[in-house]
Amino acid sequence: MEIMLVIFLTVPAAFSDSHSLRYYYTGVSAPGYGIPEFSIVGYLDGFHLVQLMHSCELRDDGSIISYEQFRYDGEEFMYLDTKTGTFIPTMAEAQITTQRWNSPDVRAGERIQNYLTQECIDRLRRYIVYGGEDLERRVRPRVKVTHQKSGDITKLHCQVYGFHPRPVDVKWMNEEDEVHSYETTHVLPNLDGTYQIRVSAEVTPKDGDSYSCYVDHSSLEEPLLVQWEPPHVVFPRPVLRAVVIIASVLTSVIAGVIIYKCQR
Asked: Fewest Cβ atoms closer than 10 Å to its Cβ: which of 33, 71, 105, 161?
């Protein structure tokens, strides 16, 4: 499980008639892919953007993964090296800040690293308990396989929907080989709290090929393999009727020739 917090770090600022510092708080009820439920963004003069993002993750084996990153106008400014507890500048403008924060009298990286590995993890465990019913909910995915044909190329579509929780692994397989030419949508939320995704692949089927959509999800004891059935050639009724008539005529002609030869 992972929790991600997006916050703005308050820093000293000088105010004058020509400068301003603004904070924007944003909350969404149903976040989409890549959009956090809650964020605070600070704008300097309305023209510059400063962002701080940190995260703590508790894995099944008990290990902890954490990070903290600062961005300025969309580009990485500096980040916390969690092994050494020091900040690393990724912009020349960040040199002064990192030197100050890494100094022996400040040691900001060590304090933040302690927060990420202790208080953040404690909060994470508490939130897991609060959201236990929803976090533990398991809904099996439903799978629909379709195709589109253009010349010799067949585009296979695997629509996986109605599953919960969000993580899922979907791919196309040819027997035991993975098909690599993918077009994949993001995992999108449904109104009922479940999720959906579509994975497509372009193939040129040959005799003996067997394509299947592979789906692995925490609600399944074993991954699903939904096979794609190539379309059968279906002749229109008038064509079938004509074939039957021609076959009957040919049969009559052949029978007549055989009878004629036998009578000679």
From this structure: 105
Answer positive or negative: Cα dihedral of 253, 259, 263, 264. positive
- Helix-, strand-, coil-residue percentages of the chain, each rounded to 5: 25, 40, 35
CA atoms within 13 A of residue 106's CA, in its CB half-sphere: 11
Q: What is the pLDDT of residue 182?
A: 73
Q: What is the pTM of this model?
A: 0.55
Question: 48 is written with which tokens?
Answer: 């510059």
Q: Is it the case that residue 195 has pLDDT exceeding 90? A: yes
Give dist(CA 160, CA 173) in Å, integer.
Answer: 15
Q: Contact at 8 Å (CB) between 8 and 42? A: yes
Radius of gyration for the chain, computed over Cα atoms and rounded to the nearest angstrom: 31
Decide if pLDDT at 15 tops 60: no
Residues 6+ apart with CB under 8 A from 218: 138, 165, 167
Output b/e per residue, 11-28; b: 16+ Cβ within 10 A: eeeeeeeeeebeeeeeee
Q: What is the mean pLDDT of residues 96-115?
A: 94
Average pLDDT over residues 119-132: 90
Backbone angles phi, psi at 89, to 5 degrees: -75, 140
How many angstroms separate the Cα of 124 from the Cα of each of 27, 53, 56, 83, 110?
20, 16, 8, 21, 20
E runs forming strands in the chain: 2-7, 21-27, 38-44, 48-58, 64-72, 75-81, 86-89, 142-150, 153-163, 169-174, 177-178, 182-184, 188-189, 195-203, 211-216, 224-227
Tokens representing 76 are 């990485």
**3-class secondary structure, 89:** strand
Nearest partner of 211 among 194, 231, 241, 189, judged by Cα: 231
